[in-house]
């Protein structure tokens, strides 16, 4: 195998064996990376490079959008979908009009979203609290003194 094929194979295996949280973070990382590469291409007047990197970012954002579960996600999913659609529109504008500001706007959306997802996936869930008893009969009672626990 050629060295570049090793890297490609490693990356393919990493994606195939990752959990959902890691995949989402990888997608955001890719979208941010390709947006920055599009900015670099724009600075270098590399029109094909700009177009390819914008297309890659659009593809990733479309995948993020398709992965949304509107039934379970409710309002959050709807707001993310709105941000993704806006980002796709900004990427199209950046590609057609070579609008650097549109790419910077996309980064201002993607970077905080990536940080938020990272916090979600790295913060351990809070322990669930038992529901409060509704009446005194359900209140936990102190242990009774028995021969087993009377030694103090």
List keywords for this structure.
single chain; 152 residues; mainly alpha; Four Helix Bundle (Hemerythrin (Met), subunit A)
The low-pLDDT segments are 148-152
In percent, how much strand structure appears in the residues? under 5%
CATH superfamily annotation of the domain at 27-124: Flagellar protein FliS
How much helix, percentage-wise, in residues?
over 70%
Content-based structural category: mainly alpha
Return Rg in Å: 25 Å
CATH architecture of the domain at 27-124: Up-down Bundle
State the distance separating the first and last CA atoms.
71 Å
Give a description of the structure.
By secondary structure, the chain is mainly alpha-helical. It has a domain at about 25-125: Flagellar protein FliS (Four Helix Bundle (Hemerythrin (Met), subunit A), Up-down Bundle). The protein has five helices and no strands. It has helices at about 5-15, 20-45, 45-65, 70-95, 100-120. The longest helix is centred in the middle third of the chain and has 28 residues, at about 70-95. The chain is elongated, with a radius of gyration of 25 Å. It starts with a helix and ends in a 30-residue tail after the last helix. About 15% of the residues are buried. Residues about 150 have low confidence and may be disordered.
